[in-house]
Amino acid sequence: MRIGGLAAAILLGLATLGQAAPLNPEVVAGDAKWVAHLDVDAMRSSIVVQKAYQHFVEKSPIGKAAVTMLDVSPALIGMDPRKDLHAVTIYGSQIGKHKGVLIVFAEADRKLLTEMVKKAHGYESSTYGSYELHSWIHEDDEDERPVTGAFYKDKVMVFSGSEAEVKVALDVMDGKKPGLTCKVLAAEAPAGTTVLARVVGIAEAETPCESKLAKEIESVGVVTGENEGQSFLHVKVVAKSAEVAKQMGRVAEGVRALGVLHAIDHPKDKQLVEGMKVNVADKTVTVDGSAPAEAVWEHMRWEHMRIQIAIKQHEKKKCERSKK
């Protein structure tokens, strides 16, 4: 669900210590083809996230404004993301479709949110077993779309564009319907994982944009996070044939080679490149990266500064042209 101007504020809210909330396969429907999980609690203990928070707040007017919004967020969205938001899980049974289920784990003001949603355009309520379903029309600058939401428990909220999918999600969490059993999607993630994204059945999926490469890939998994001061990235791709996997491995090695060349002029990035390993085994390609979190942050900070300089130079040239 979108929350407009509070997006930046929520990102800022990820810098307070908390306990990790990893992906729970039991809350994901058994027919899911893709799943993504954001462990907000784990992000709060991340060196990179904490450094980004400090940098953003101290050096950005937008950051300071976002902090102000965070201070009033309990009255606006029923929670303070800095301490109340724990995790977000998204999954769906179709690839390439604007469909799916969003589960939010947070210490939210249930009464306030219920009163707020009742004022939404097209609001309707219904019941499903012991649950109250809230349906409304979400409006933005581009379009309108239906949304249905429900509290599973006081600390768990379920949303979807389909009322039927919300009902299935509630049944899954109640144990009335099977949860996730696919080994690829439900595989345990490393300690400290902050972001997880996995998808299966890519080759067989029907999507609006047909891709020859996609038709050669069975599954993709990406996991990133931080543990004991080390940032990590794990990518796993399973192709339909060993030959395709071999070619993809060569592409990955090419990217690593470019990183080595870049590190010649930027020695601080050497640790990032040295920590990247590519492996090809039959139909599987894995890319594993590991580097000190401080080094990762320095790279991000430098890239941010470089982008800011480029933007200022562009604006300066644009202003000069307008004066001619």
Percent of residues in beta strands: 25-35%
How far apart the termini lie comes to 46 Å
User: Radius of gyration, rounded?
Assistant: 22 Å
Biggest β-sheet: strands ordered side by side in the sheet: 4-5-6-7-3-2-1-8-9-10-12-11
Sheet/helix structural class: alpha+beta
Main sheet summary: 12 strands, antiparallel
What percent of the residues sit in helical stretches (DSSP H or I)? Answer: 25-40%
Question: Total number of helical segments?
Answer: 10
- Regions with little confidence, pLDDT below 50 for 5+ residues: 1-20
Number of strands: 12
Oligomeric category: single chain
Helices and strands, in N-to-C order? HEHHHEEHEEEEHHEEEHHEEH
- Averaged pLDDT: 87
Shape call: globular
